[in-house]
Design a protein that fits this description.
Layout lengths: L7 E8 L2 H16 L10 E6 L3 E4 L8 H8 L4 E4 L7 E3 L3 E7 L9 H18 L12 E3 L2 E11 L2 E9 L19 E2 L2 H5 L5 H16 L3 E5 L7
Parallel strand pairs: 1-2, 1-11, 3-4, 8-10
Antiparallel strand pairs: 2-6, 3-5, 6-9, 7-8, 8-9
């Protein structure tokens, strides 16, 4: 880890569409790309929830049009993205975190980065008494059930996309797909594991504390709205 650097900015976007979240990520990524070399752009964590949406990553073969139509009839949107991974679901009750970080200020290793995201969520689960772990398949698991999906993009060491933690998500949405293309495994949520209703707002401070521990950066809440255009 390098010498202490500026805190990571927390950007709370609320419940926004997936397309809007993509635009916000692009704006923060561009902020890094347009930076003054003498004044690096601040890193940021964009946190939000989405209305129901299915997304596929770059590892997905062309998704059949009839399957897209079938999912759309359920009332969910459908997006192709440039993240890693296969098909997954985002929706209300899911804590979605999109870190826009310059890995040159951390460690220039995607394997390290994904591992730290996994450990961040495992640490959060541990605070709640949930025994979570990694597996050969990316993400965080409770036994054979995935509690957090991870899919990232990284260009010139600037990250986007990120993680989606099932907090009190309606898990029935996952029954219409093979989540992340992994056959024979299930999904779970924090609420399911604890046997009580847990909110995204309740878990966000714990996620930020765990992120700070595993990435060695403080997180400061400096923005509660999208970055202005331009």
């Amino acid at each position: 880890m390098q010498s202490p650097r500026a805190a990571v900015q927390l950007v709370q976007l609320g419940r926004i569409s997936y397309s809007q979240a993509l635009l916000e990520q692009q704006r923060f990524v561009q902020r890094h790309r347009n930076r003054d070399p003498s004044r690096p752009a601040p890193d940021a964590l964009l946190v939000c929830e989405h209305p129901p949406v299915y997304t596929i990553g770059i590892r997905q073969a062309p998704y059949p049009a009839e399957e897209e139509r079938r999912l759309a009839l359920l009332g969910a949107e459908f997006f192709r993205t440039n993240r890693g991974g296969l098909i997954t679901f985002h929706g209300p009750g899911q804590l979605v975190c999109y870190p826009v970080l310059d890995l040159r200020g951390f460690r220039k290793s995607l394997r390290w980065y994904v591992g730290q995201l996994e450990q961040t969520v495992i640490g959060l689960c541990g605070q709640l008494g949930i025994e979570a772990s990694t597996s050969p398949d990316t993400g965080v698991w409770v036994g054979d059930n995935k509690i957090c999906a991870i899919g990232i993009h990284c260009g010139r060491y600037i990250t986007s996309h990120g993680l989606a933690l099932n907090v009190n998500t309606d898990l029935s949405w996952f029954k219409h797909i093979v989540p992340c293309g992994i056959v024979g495994k299930g999904v779970t949520s924090v609420s399911e594991e604890l046997g009580r209703a847990v909110t995204v707002e309740e878990l966000l401070p714990r996620l930020l504390d765990s992120f700070s521990e595993h990435f060695g950066r403080d997180v400061t809440s400096t923005r509660t709205a999208p970055l202005p255009p331009g």
